[in-house]
Design brief:
The protein is mainly α. It contains 7 helices and no strands. The mean pLDDT is 90.
Length: 132
């Protein structure tokens, strides 16, 4: 059975991969709804990695706000991300099924910057042994 640190490491690797796919997508003019999905997934997995490393059970959800609710008591600095990440919620499910929710280039750029910033903070908060 995998330890929570192993789970955190795996989630970080997956988050890196999602972020990389989003960046490649932007660079190669991929459909922005697909890019948006990978941006949301990166944020979700970064937060879940931190929860796993802290031995906190988390729900199977795409709800970034719910994940932040679990983390903010121990890491109040993550509250600063709430406003920047809330828009990602629609990227996980709704946008995949509703063409009216298609993101624009500026929106994706802002979301990517938010997730890159989140990645830096999460890496600072994680124990070194949970990093890939």
């Amino acid at each position: 059975m995998k330890s929570n640190l192993d789970l955190a490491r795996n989630l970080l690797t997956k988050a890196y991969n999602d972020l990389k796919m989003a960046e490649i997508g932007v660079a190669h003019e991929a459909p922005l709804d697909t890019v948006a999905f990978h941006v949301q997934q990166a944020a979700e997995k970064l937060l879940k990695a931190l929860l796993a490393a802290r031995d906190v059970e988390y729900p199977r959800t795409h709800d970034v706000a719910a994940l932040l609710d679990l983390l903010v008591p121990a890491h109040p600095q993550l509250e600063d991300f709430r406003e920047r990440l809330l828009g990602l919620a629609s990227y996980a499910v709704d946008m995949r099924y509703d063409a009216a929710l298609y993101p624009g280039t500026d929106e994706i750029a802002e979301a990517l910057n938010a997730v890159r910033d989140l990645q830096r903070v999460v890496l600072e908060l994680l124990p070194p042994e949970s990093r890939p």
